[in-house]
Amino acid sequence: MKARWIRGLAAGLIALAAVGLTACGDDDAGGGGSEVTGEITVFAAASLTESFTRIGADFEAANPGTKVTFNFAGSSALATQIGQGAPADVFASAAPANMATVADAGDVDGEAVTFVKNQLVIAVPKGNPKGITGLSDLVGPDVKVALCAEQVPCGAAAKKALQAASVELTPVTFEQDVKSVLSKVTLGEVDAALVYRTDAIAAASDVDGVEFAESAGAINEYPIAVLRNAPNKATARAFVDHVLSDPAKLVLTTAGFQAA
Amino acid sequence: MSADPSAAVSAPVRAPRRRRRAGRVPVALLVPAVLGLLLLVLPLAGLLVRAPWTTLPRRLAEPGVLTALGLSVQTATMATVVCLVLGVPLAWLLARVDFPGKRVVRALVTVPLVLPPVVGGVALLLVFGRKGILGAWLDSAFGITLPFTTAGVVLAEAFVAMPFLVIAVEGALRAADSRYEEAAATLGAGRWTTFTRVTLPLVAPGIAAGAVLCWARALGEFGATITFAGNFPGRTQTMPLAVYLALETDLEAAIVLSLVLLVVSVVILAGLRDRWISSP
């Protein structure tokens, strides 16, 4: 009984090792040559989720034999993961600051390129029940507002926009990312929130986006770069070129981004 | 203790004898035990190694740190009180009363243990939020809104931590000798009197153990709190929330805040264990 158990385990381990070896072989083929093939891992800001998923599928269709895997999260969390040695090929950040963190650590291959910009809007519940038209309408005891925390890009942009408008605002909460801010509006817990235009468009069935003039002073630039330790650099470069191409730009602008 | 001098004298003698009788520790148990210990302790050691010791005093003096720590200790303690008031009777019900659907109720009590806390926070919003089933009524009838308030933090922490208390107390109740309760009943005590005069003192160590676990879980609560109560310094920003946000920009600040939380919890838990919980 015991012998059979051990034999089973050994067989399993050998099978596992074999799989591991073939996987390594594939990696070498992809990384060593200049051919656009094999798998790449793209670390991208959470706000790019919808458009990059679409762009990734287009890229795979245009380049048979490639596979794009995404890791969507907050830009600062992604920058930390890259700094700790995560095996990523491409980094697309929602703010230059996080790209700078990665570049300063020597992890960027070449230069980062800005590929889109994103602007803030005021997200209000569908139909705008409080009749909010600008930042000054957000002040007052009967309006509950949610903002991103200053530590994340959308919070830094919100602070800049509020300063530009000389509006002093006490929100009920500083959320950890833009999607949490948005969910507070869709759940009806707050009357207004500052989010990216792309997020308001993605949640158009539940929220309306109110544009305001001062958002022009707090535009977020999105840089993208191939990483120095990319396991598959050729394909990574091809993906970045694809993101900068016209078809991809159309996907991004449809989602509410502005062309860089 | 001092009432029974023989116990005090025999204790130090008994301990080494028991160790000798146990014989050699089987390797099959020792290896996984040590690996398990390493798994639990190594990450903490990692925090200690990476801690910025030179700038530690300056970082601790930052005003936000003490505010968040104070709020954490305060809300975790209030959540534990809520859990004690509601959880001990619930545990008694599960351990001592037979009613239909008891298995389902017991399973439901443990749901917060497996539910991702963020989902728990959303669920709390759906019930106690401004548009929630109960929340809308609370708002219109009394003008009470729980999200984004300190009371909301306590509610979120109690939701997540209560199962720890209920499970511990129910276990203690099941292990307790029910003949004492039966004796009280035959002597004419009602169920309430039996509960307060016999059952509670009997399972007090179990309740204390459950309360400590419950407090510790509430202290570290993150997901349900940030989802239900939001994040505002001094009002709903507890230590774990401050750590998470510090992590966005400043790894060292996050480590310092974590260390503070760690030291406070270890000191309090170690202190309580010695005083309250008699380890057999």
TrEMBL record, chain A:
Q: Where is the signal peptide?
A: 1-23
Superkingdom of source = Bacteria
| Entry keyword set | Metal-binding, Molybdenum, Signal
InterPro entries given for it?
A: ModA (IPR005950), ModA/WtpA (IPR050682)
GO annotation (BP), single? molybdate ion transport
One example GO MF annotation: metal ion binding
> Pfam families of this UniProt entry?
SBP_bac_11 (PF13531)
Give residues annotated as binding molybdate: 47, 75, 178, 196
Give the UniProt family note.
Answer: Belongs to the bacterial solute-binding protein ModA family.
- What is the official name of this protein in its record? Molybdate transport system substrate-binding protein
From TrEMBL, chain B:
Native species: Phytomonospora endophytica
InterPro entries reported for this sequence: MetI-like, MetI-like_sf, ModB_ABC, NifC_ABC_porter
Task: Name the keywords, alphabetized.
Answer: Cell membrane, Membrane, Molybdenum, Transmembrane, Transmembrane helix, Transport
The signal peptide stretch is none
Q: Tell me its family.
A: Belongs to the binding-protein-dependent transport system permease family. CysTW subfamily.
Q: What NCBIfam families does this protein's entry cite?
A: Mo_ABC_porter (TIGR01581), modB_ABC (TIGR02141)
Q: Which PROSITE patterns match?
A: ABC_TM1
Q: What name has this protein been given in UniProt?
A: Molybdenum transport system permease
